[in-house]
Amino acid sequence: MASIHSSNEDIEAKELDTRSVSSSRNHSQGAPYIHKVGVPPKQNLFKEFSNTVKETFFSDDPLRPFKHQPKSRKLILGVQAIFPIFEWGRGYNLLKFRGDLIAGLTIASLCIPQDIGYAKLANLAPQYGLYSSFVPPLIYAIMGSSRDIAIGPVAVVSLLLGTLLQNEIDPVKNPDDYRRLAFTATFFAGITQATLGILRMGFLIDFLSHAAIVGFMGGAAITIALQQLKGFLGIQKFTKKTDIVSVMQSVFHSAHHGWNWQTIVIGVSFLSFLLLAKYIFLSDFTCSGEQGKKKKNLFWVPAIAPLISVILSTFFVYITHAEKDGVAIVRHIEKGINPPSVNEIFFTGDYLAKGFKIGVVAGMVALTEAIAIGRTFASMKDYQLDGNKEMVALGTMNIVGSMTSCYVATGSFSRSAVNYYAGCETAVSNIVMSVVVFLTLQFITPLFKYTPNAILAAIIISAVINLVDFQAAILIWKIDKFDFVACMGAFFGVIFASVEIGLLIAVSISFAKILLQVTRPRTAILGKIPRTNVYRNIQQYPEATKVPGVMIVRIDSAVYFSNSNYIKERILRWLVDEEEQLKEAYLPSIQFLIVEMSPVTDIDTSGIHALEELHRGLQKRDIQLVLANPGPVVIDKIHASHVATLIGEDRIFLTVADAVSSCSLKLVEEA
Amino acid sequence: MASIHSSNEDIEAKELDTRSVSSSRNHSQGAPYIHKVGVPPKQNLFKEFSNTVKETFFSDDPLRPFKHQPKSRKLILGVQAIFPIFEWGRGYNLLKFRGDLIAGLTIASLCIPQDIGYAKLANLAPQYGLYSSFVPPLIYAIMGSSRDIAIGPVAVVSLLLGTLLQNEIDPVKNPDDYRRLAFTATFFAGITQATLGILRMGFLIDFLSHAAIVGFMGGAAITIALQQLKGFLGIQKFTKKTDIVSVMQSVFHSAHHGWNWQTIVIGVSFLSFLLLAKYIFLSDFTCSGEQGKKKKNLFWVPAIAPLISVILSTFFVYITHAEKDGVAIVRHIEKGINPPSVNEIFFTGDYLAKGFKIGVVAGMVALTEAIAIGRTFASMKDYQLDGNKEMVALGTMNIVGSMTSCYVATGSFSRSAVNYYAGCETAVSNIVMSVVVFLTLQFITPLFKYTPNAILAAIIISAVINLVDFQAAILIWKIDKFDFVACMGAFFGVIFASVEIGLLIAVSISFAKILLQVTRPRTAILGKIPRTNVYRNIQQYPEATKVPGVMIVRIDSAVYFSNSNYIKERILRWLVDEEEQLKEAYLPSIQFLIVEMSPVTDIDTSGIHALEELHRGLQKRDIQLVLANPGPVVIDKIHASHVATLIGEDRIFLTVADAVSSCSLKLVEEA
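^ inputs. structure came back:
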């Protein structure tokens, strides 16, 4: 067969030859200079193992600053590592404090009304929201390393916690046990977070994909907004379910006699005020970290708008006594700071396991949110954030929180953004906020008595509305359709079923994507790009030409047990397709299969077997297997097994170009 | 900084320039010819989606032969696809039958004593083993596409099934329910297998890695052999646990009065005979598909040795009445063929769920074994095996089996090897075996009355001993240490805990490996290999040299949410390390970071964000981000997002060499 087309090949081969000169021939000698594939120096087993462990768990090299330091210095560094406040505290000055003071006062004014509303989402009394904005920020300020994050209760986690807890205990019938379970869950949320950090398993939170988070957050925001219809419309009987269908039924069933027009008037007017303030003055700060281009120096208008609304509406209700016309008001917030709650945590019994389970879920979600915020701002201000250290800080703060009547706190998107714009310099802004909350708890809570619930609803709606990130969703659609499915799955899961279902969908789709990635890696047929010595995917470069008698396939993934069979069969199928086409066109059949292995970073025993089987399968068709550019790990393993001798050392080349020129030479010789 | 070292750079840049001429300059013009990165033609959404689905579920293109065929032909092809017997049956002839007859008789002689023993492992009466060698092989012969597999009960699945069923129902106290649960599990094992095949989810079995299977099989073999000590030593009271500690305690506790010397004599002498026959005449056919070089034409000696042992020992016991001296014998095997058992399957009640769960596990393990065997022999005889079709065949055979008093059947390693050596041509050898088993059931079973249990134990020990595959384990150790951990984990899990625990360990470690792969991909620093234009990992090629002012990093994986953060941080860490080194050596600092993206086959929204953040992080350090050779999907997504304009279209190159020469030119211009 080869001899028939010898003239053709001859020409082609000469062409190849000329080209190969330019790349790999040593000009002075004229003989092809073919560089050998490097075999990396043998590592001993222990070193190999410790390197793997290091890259997996200590990829950020946390002990680096400790190297070559005297003992006393190591101690100081160690303390500073656990309590970063001792590090940045030394350089703290009045100028920085000015920024932190303004930022702290601003986020305090924002958090107080939010906290009261969020506590309701978690089915807890309003003071628990305030408690959670007092202790956890203090702990975080000492241990955390983000300079911009604002700590406290957040909408999504409050809703999630409320939903999960409600499945176990009815918060109306049995409020004491419910509260105790909430503390138990908070405790285990903290334990989960701290443990992940200490065991350096922080990478686990990376398994929730960005797309899934966008969808989940958007869905949760809408669910939360819908929940606010109760307070907003003044509905008395409201469903306990959170899915959109139940909520809408609830709303429409009560349309005739359940709505309170005074409440609606108050709600609508203040919501308009809040949204106006927000959209006129504040840039669109979304959870994906995008910034709009609005006036940043007027950040304080929307930031204090909620507090102004609260003050105005409370005063209004107080003088008109609108609560007698059916306008629901807060009525009572416990005065004084957090009572201890260690003895309320369930450390035994049935509720221990339930609290643990809820805590793990809530802790992970809270962690994801906090780390996402931390990373966003760290990259904006260009400082490093140690994910694992952050987890320990967040975990400790929730453990301490669970013992001081707080529920799960984390970083809030909206308040962190305000904190950032208000010019915070360090975590001291959290301390300022915490002090303000303390003063509020001590002295001002009775004043909230006449605050209408509709205002809290309006504040929550205007706060969560930013979590619906249309732009991010559109970008996801543009970039990756599979991600979009994950995003929408999570979104609709939350809206039409519940937060847990949405979360489950998000995690499942994320995992399915990973599995798909490892079972069905890509392969590509390569061709030569004209006027270069470069071989590229012919799908991407239609001008690339195939080399007669040679097929070049690139494997685009590590070859593992999960894909070795697929890869082997996929290559053989390329071959069959190709041979059929060649036959139809009366072109010379394939005699060499070059496998470009540059992207193959690793191969395991199943992969080695697949390679052997590929070699055997090709042998039966009289086709030579040639490898190009196997990486260090791969070449090592090819030598460790007998595959190197099976294929032949002289059939392993540094580049595809070298392999092609060698194959072409042989084709010419045969012809 | 750059100007200080200008002379140095100048020289280097010129050198680079000369080189770049040879690779990418158009000789006639003299201006650098830089080929643009190809943007693949836009696919429409539906096409993209259908392509993904096709590669995932129909990667073997099963409908290919149906293309361009008339309807009647399509029907015939369809029937042949479901029942391959109509395909190969047409070319069947006497010569082939001769091979199948010999092979069928041989495997029948091997399977009859094995079946009786294996039924015991599953805690079922001996005839159920024989039943399972009658119906399932017939079904498989019609529907299966492997020519060499020998169908019937196998040791590992029998043990697994026995262990799992025993956890639910005591086989001694409640044998009827136990048997019914066994049929239920078999039914659902079949349903699982067939469903996986029909839904084309066959790739799921690839998630059990080769290494894990080797360890699991080895451990199971040793556990099974240990179980045989009961029959082998004639122990009356034996533990029900399968772990080595319990079994050994059982054995030694009974050492004084529980052992029966006559039994031991019979057992030891026949086991010696069996092992001798095996190791002298049969090549080492192990589950990893390795073949030794012993005399293959004497395959029948070890193949019929078990039957000879049974006949001799039965005759011996019959004339000496050794059963009166405490030699345990089979006593009774039900005569006649399989009674129907549809009405025995639990379709309602508590046991339905339990049967389902056990069935799924047993079905998956049975499937893994059968597919591994099928693939091994298919690649040896070079024919294609459709995994999904095989699953449907195996599933159907177990569903039918569950209705005809069979328990889970699958392909047996040892009998398939004998079948192959005996010269089987098609699945007719299974039919022959089935007929022999039928005749045995109808006429010969009473003769087994005096067969000593010790013989069955010896036969099982000699059969399973080959599943301990030392060579494979050594090879795994050599190739991949992580695989070895999986292998040993499964092995010791089975031996020291139980088959389920071993299986769980095997699956968990396999999954952990996949997760590790996707969270911690490799990255490499590249350098230029002397006298070429090729850039390679400097760890693998220590002679490769770095380019001054430029750092070249290769990302060795698709960039997904699970690793995008790690990759970004890893690259920045490479940079910090490198800059420190350069500073110490008073060398020019880095001004360009070239990211070689050849191995990056895909990128998702998180990956795009990571790229943006990397760009932003580099900008703050006055370093330019340059991309080399992004693949079709990646370039598409880079354009879909605004990353392309952010980085600059002119900073995306076809090759690292192009990128380097462009960067060097700029460095020269600046200097």
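Chain B is about 60% helix and 5% strand. Residues 85-516 of chain B form one domain.
thumbs up if we can close this ticket
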